[in-house]
Each structure stands twice: as structure tokens, then as C-alpha cells.
Amino acid sequence: MAEHQHQGHSDCSEVLHHIYEYLDGEMSPEDVKRVAGHLAECRPCLAEHDLDAAVKEVVRRSCVEQPAPAALRMQVVSRLTTIRMDLDG
Q1: Cα 52 to Cα 16: distance, rounded to the nearest angstrom
Q2: Burial class, 68, CB count within 10 angstroms (exposed 0-12 / middle 13-18 / buried 19+)
Q3: Which of 14, 64, 65, 66 is 20 to 30 A off residue 72, Cα-Cα?
Q4: Residue among 16, 85, 87 at smallest CA distance from 49
Q5: What is the Cα–Cα distance from 43 to 49, expressed in whole angstroms?
Q6: What would the pLDDT profile of 23-55 be if each residue is shown by its tens digit?
Q7: The whole model's pTM is what?
């Protein structure tokens, strides 16, 4: 996404910044409602949500026998952030 504002959705940046908190169930009920409402109306953010959810699922299935080391997790998150910033740029 070249821009984080789609058809009147000024909070795309905020939603995408916290998408993993949403996916992990680490948000307050009010924030969950706000993000869910945004995703229901914003196709680009919903597509990003679906991609991030798929990545989390692949990683979860791949790490069934033992959890990924913390350093690997941080490296993956860093790379995803870099990729997202490159796409946004």
C-alpha cells in the first residue's frame, strides 16, 4: 500500500501497526471492536490482516514440536516490518 488512507479511512496506519496485537487477542474489547469495524470496511487493510494471519498460521504449524527461539521471532518480525515499510514507501 502506497498510502495508509483508503477512501476516508484515516486510521489504516494505526490498525496495521497493531494488527498482530489484534491477531493475538492482546487488545482491549474497545480496540478489538474498532479494528474489526475498520477491517469490515477497508479491503486493503483486510487483505493485510489475512496475509499476516496466514503467516502466523504457517509459523505456528512449523513450530509444533518446539517453539521458535526468541532471536528468530524478533528477526522475522523485523523483516516483516521492513517489508511492510518498503511496500508503504
Answers
A1: 10
A2: middle
A3: 14
A4: 16
A5: 10
A6: 999 999 999 999 999 999 999 999 999 999 998
A7: 0.60
